[in-house]
Design brief:
The protein is mainly α. The chain folds into two domains: 71 residues; 31 residues, no CATH class. It is 66% helix and 0% strand.
Amino acid sequence: MFGPDLEMVSLAPKGFSFAWTSLVSGLGLLPLALGAGEPGREIEGPMAVVILGGLSTPIALNLLALPTLALRFGRFVRDVQTGRNTGAAAIRNREQGLPQPKRWS
């Protein structure tokens, strides 16, 4: 069952917890990041900005870029015998002389 449907189903619980954890951590650092130019915060302000960037980058990569790349460049192949989706099915079916699996685009 590996394919576009599974990709969307698997993102829901993982993405929800991941996004909320990063959002709450970022909200805690927001006052430090906004007061970066004030006297006495020469170290804490820029560090808070860097940490906020480190919290937002994985959200963009894990929830937006990686699923998009997996759906675009992934090889989703259905095994003719078992009906399961697997990348190894094409090789096994070719070696056994069976019909080639159906490919999704």
